[in-house]
Automatic annotation (TrEMBL):
Residues 2-147 form the EVE domain. InterPro entries: 5hmC_binding, EVE_domain, PUA-like_sf, THYN1-like_EVE. This is EVE domain-containing protein. The lineage of its organism: Bacteria, Thermotogati, Deinococcota, Deinococci, Deinococcales. PANTHER family: THYMOCYTE NUCLEAR PROTEIN 1 (PTHR14087:SF7).
Length: 164
DNA sequence: GCCAACGTTGGC
DNA sequence: GCCAACGTTGGC
């Protein structure tokens, strides 16, 4: 299992919207680095759901990848602002995954608070001018956020897949 | 292949 | 609303 952070503007689509929807294609990512991370995701990976463009920004919940990367539908939709005329169904350029809600944090863990957590010291999220909307995190970072929020995820504390 | 111009992101 | 940082575009 790997761990990721997904940014979204809550005015557009926040964690509460995901909780309501039950499942959602994470489409519209139009940055190659972010796209390449999407392509590394597999079902079962956990994603911190980060609210950006709001005050304060921070992690609002945890989502789970429920479908690995497949072609982003919006790239083929001329009516979409995410349309990409260079993309064809035979040669798609952009990918999306499907995510589902897993846990709403009891309280937002703000960007300011992330800056105080040792596990986050080296995260690109905290780097000046960071704009990446999909980025890898690690188990310790996820755990530190859950701990700060006063909650846990049983799946996190289990050892990696037990050998049979 | 360089680089200036431009558009976008995102914290403040 | 401002502005710094960054990625992309397109002329050359």
């Amino acid at each position: 299992m790997r761990f990721w952070l997904l940014k979204s503007e809550p005015d557009v689509f926040g964690y509460a919207d995901l909780a309501r929807a039950g499942r959602e294609p994470w489409n519209g990512v139009r940055n190659y680095q972010a796209r390449n991370f999407l392509r590394q995701m597999t079902a079962g990976d956990l994603c911190l759901f980060y609210h950006s463009g709001t005050r304060p920004p921070g992690v609002a919940g945890v989502a789970q990848v429920v479908r690995a990367a497949y072609p982003d539908n919006l790239q083929f939709d001329p009516a979409s602002s995410y349309a990409d005329p260079r993309a064809t169904p035979e040669a798609p350029r952009w990918s999306m995954v499907d995510v589902a809600p897993l846990l709403a944090l009891p309280r937002l863990i703000t960007l300011d608070e992330l800056r105080t957590l040792p596990a986050w010291a080296a995260s690109p999220l905290l780097a000046r001018g960071s704009r990446l909307s999909v980025l890898p995190v690690d188990r310790a970072q996820v755990q530190s956020v859950l701990q700060a929020a006063g909650t846990t995820l049983p799946a996190l504390d289990e050892p990696a897949a037990p050998a049979l």
